[in-house]
Amino acid sequence: MPGYYKKACPLPVSVMQRTVLEEIVQRHTSRQDHVKRAGIILYSSEGMSIIEVAEHLKIHRKTVSLWRSRWLCHQEHLTLIEVEVEVEADRPALSEAILSTLSDAPRCGTPVTYTAQVVDSSNKQLDPSAIRGTIVLS
After folding, report:
1. pLDDT band at 5 (very low <50, low <70, confident <90, very high)
2. Which of 52, 66, 108, 137 is most buried by a 10 A CB count?
3. Looking at the domain assignment, is residue 125 inside a domain?
């Protein structure tokens, strides 16, 4: 059915946000999930439809829809940070907020039972010879 899906509006992305997103995409040390999600936002801001972005990035259209909606939910927060920053030197705060937006949401499940101190103290109490495959030199 042609025209069944309504074409999505371009995402609102400011100049400074675009700069940070492009840096994420171009940086060789960026996580690949962040690169893919930044690409979704950049292409969506240029007016590409959800299906066009999905085909271009070879991902499912539901993934594009998910990250478009997450960007829109965080847009007000990002704009507030950008207004507070105003200076190029303080851009790491905006960059950190954008990376947080592009990161996975916390997953449900059982919270951590043991603190790092408990684990560390129990590791110190272990007898080194009890650990399989270790050689104890006396």
Report:
1. low
2. 52
3. no
